[in-house]
Each structure stands twice: as C-alpha cells, then as structure tokens.
C-alpha cells in the first residue's frame, strides 16, 4: 500500500514538473531550467517498483511529451557546453566543466566492462549513432578503454557534428580515430557491415515506433555476429528516456540487460545479431516475457542474463 502511494505521489510530482517545463519559453540552460531538470532527475533516480507501461493512457501521453522535452533540453545543454569547451585551445583538457562529465566516465566504464564480457576481440571500428554536439561516450571509450579503435560518429545534425569535431580536432590521436558523418542513419546501409560494434544513443527514436524502425534497419544491415549496444531506462527513469525491451530486438540475441542504481541514468542492453531462422524468431516473445518476469522479480539492481537457447 505504501509503495502504491509512493508511486502515485511520484507520478503526480513528475506530472507537475512536465507542466512547468511545457510552459517555458526556452529550454536552453538557465538558472530556472537547470533547477527544474535537477528536481526531475532527483525524483526519478531512486529505485522504485513503478512500471511506466502499466500507467494510464493519459500519463503515457504526457510521459512521451516529457521525453521529447528532455531530449530537446539535453541537446541544447550539450551544444552550450560544447561551444564553451571548443573555445579552449585544448578542449579535452576541460571536459570537467561539463556538469555530467563524471556520469559519462562511469557509463563508459560500465559499457566497456559489459562489452568485454560478451565480445572477446578488441573492436576495430565502432559506430555511435546519435553522437550529438558533445560525443562524450566516444571520447571516453577512445581515450580510456579502446585506444586503438576507430569511432564513427553519426548524427543527422550538421551543427552538432561540427561542434563534436571541433572538440577533438586539436588532439593528435583522437582527431585521427574519431570520424563524423552527417546523415540520417536510415539512409546508411552497406557501411553498417563494417562495424564490429554499434552504439545506439538513448534519444535516437524518442518513441517506441521510431526506435523499433531504427533497430530493424540496423538488424537488416549490420554484419552477423556484430554487437548492438543500446541505452534504455528502468523504473521512474523511464520518464526521462525511452525503454527498450528485449522483445524490441527481433533478430538479435540479447546477451545482458543492466540497470544501474547510482547516478548513471541509462540502463544498458547488449545484443548480438544472429542469422535469421524461424525457430529463433519464434522464441522472441517468450524471451520478452522471461525478461519482464526476471526484472519484476529482482527490481534491477543486477545484470540479468537473457540468452536465446542454441
């Protein structure tokens, strides 16, 4: 009963934040905007039993709008800080000025650890889809973990890529290993076969339908055996980012789903493209129900292994 009351209060409070944000003239960084988003994140980070997919249609509707508002605000914040960082002679020496830099350090370490558990080789080439104006995941992985790997950063926005490219242009190593491509990923086909690992940013496909379209496109064009790393959200964090369920990944074997319980907001899903067969395809709905059952039972303070039977 107490848990239900807590969840009801949480939904009401997040809804109030949504109403505040939706009336703002601008979502660019400012004292007011920063304060409201800080409140929102602090509400959504603590572990909770809430499952956003079971909430009312009205709540689902404003949650969808809130995710888009968060995505817009995140893009504006990253552009703001990327512009500041780019004004230095050596931008990468000043990354600590970005308030969430430490989160990216932790997320990079987490994603590298998960990747290492499931992929024994060092990737030669990685694609990061939706790299944005502040491509910190690529920078952290390339600098700290995968120091010989080439990173191909894809973004549909030319100005975002220009800012991202400017951050690494003065670094003799990263400027050679970080490539930037301005294109809609849905128009990239045969090139996707060249990548050992593909990262899909949380805000590429901000609603379920768009996300699944991108995932299906990646499945069609990635090499068999290549790894797909996705960002998802769990519990109340799903008010901030879209959720990717294992059953949203037909054609992929889901290797692991990890839900952080610290200040790293995003869950991490790692999957491998498998060769298509009717037997394996028929197993995906069952895999999804197993995943939901496991995550409901354990809350998410763990890595949940989800392996398709050979």
From TrEMBL:
Statement: the UniProt record of this protein carries the keyword Transmembrane helix: no
Gene Ontology MF terms in the entry: nicotianamine synthase activity
UniProt similarity note: Belongs to the nicotianamine synthase (NAS)-like family.
Reactions accelerated catalytically: 3 S-adenosyl-L-methionine = nicotianamine + 3 S-methyl-5'-thioadenosine + 3 H(+)
EC number(s) on file: 2.5.1.43
InterPro entries named in the record: Nicotian_synth, SAM-dependent_MTases_sf
Record keywords, A-Z: S-adenosyl-L-methionine, Transferase
Pfam families from the UniProt entry: NAS (PF03059)
GO BP annotations, alphabetical order: nicotianamine biosynthetic process
Functional description taken from the UniProt entry: Synthesizes nicotianamine, a polyamine which serves as a sensor for the physiological iron status within the plant, and/or might be involved in the transport of iron.
Protein name: Nicotianamine synthase
Alphabetical list of Gene3D superfamilies matching this protein: Vaccinia Virus protein VP39 (3.40.50.150)
Gene that this polypeptide is encoded by: NAS5
